[in-house]
Amino acid sequence: MNHTPRSISRRQFLQTSAAATAWAMTASSYGRVFGSNARLNVAFIGVGGIASNQHIPPLADLGAGCPCYTDVDQTRWGAAAERWSSAAAFTDYRKMFDKHHKDIDAVMVGTPDHHHFPATMIAMSLGKHVYTQKPLTHTPWEARQLTLAQKKYKLATQMGNQGHASDSLRVTIDYLRGGAIGDLQEAHVWTDRPWWRQGMQRPDGAEEIPATMDWDSWIGPAPERPYRHNPADGWGGLYHPFNWRGWWDFGCGALGDMACHEVDPVYWAMNPGYPTAIELVGGEPFGDAEMYGKASIVRFDFPAKGDRPGFKLFWYDGGNRPERPEELAPEHEWTKEGALYFGTKGKMVALNDPRNAPMLLPAERHAEYGTPKQQIERSAEGHHKEWYLACIEEKPYDFPKSNFAYAGPFSELILLGCVAQRVGGRLEYNPESMKFTNNDAANAFISKPYRKGWEYRLD
Q1: Mean pLDDT throughout 250-259?
Q2: What separation in angstroms does the CA of 148 have from each of 27, 387, 403, 406, 408?
Q3: Predicted pLDDT at 235
């Protein structure tokens, strides 16, 4: 079944909202001209959770204003309300855009994964710069749509994988591109996630929706279901505010949550584009269940590119990890998160976090090699300021290094892995057609059905 949305384009959105009046002024000038005293006006979609500590404070510190914000849970409005007491508050971002699009220069999206695409697509279609949390979207089709939108609109965009700007991550690129281990053959990346519920059944029944909660807007494009809180652990309710990550309809599991961080060093270093095959090689597919499984190992095959040979990427979650290399000295713990690289000329490991600076193996080889030659520039501005400077046109629109031209294909790769976790087996992928050539059933999960009123696509 083809779930590709048939509507709503930017034109249709504007024709059915008050935004049509303002857009009629001109469709060629997306933003205002910033003078020395101009203030970037940012709308926040989602102001609890990650927005309260990684969206609102850095943008406020850079001098941004906030004319309006949205969160479906009014009990989580505090971080924005305290900073900008005169800002208009909403529980539905579609209504916010309808009423305040003229007041907004840029948007930061910090919602559950299933809202990333519609919120971002509306913003871009209205000419707003966008910073969207990882994973960039909820399905591979959505990731490709935002990749194309970046080319079309040429706006300042950034995916929220903050470590992308760190020096330690870029040191990994120095080693890999500099040939410290020769040609990369395999990369193994593992995480200690999930920290939330996965692999359980949905409980029956419903609970009364709190007066402060807009449950219909929280569901958004996903299939309707009753409200349930039912807290059973320290991470909050059954879905909101955190455990949505483990549900197929709302999140992308451990792979979607962490690979945008932990696979980032090797993906950036190798610039491999799209995989040609994805396979669940560890764990059982979760099939028709509503939640991701508790643990998995997924392999991605990348073809040769130019003079670089093909290589394989292995992802591990739920306590899985590769075997400890014999060259690693006993004093080094085989940590719960990390990355291990095999090349034609040796091995390399990053412990505790794959974004940490790596170590060649054995230790003697690392000492002998010394500091690698720098292959990529460092970020003087940091992740958020890269985007901010592009928004106010002090830097080019594509200055942010995790802009959607990079983050779109990267997210598509990861979300293809989520499909493999669901259906199992080896999936041969054609990036041009965006189809699996050997499994028609799996193609149903390239996109998804959208609830009426939430269907958006690039026009």
Answers
A1: 98
A2: 18, 19, 12, 11, 9
A3: 61
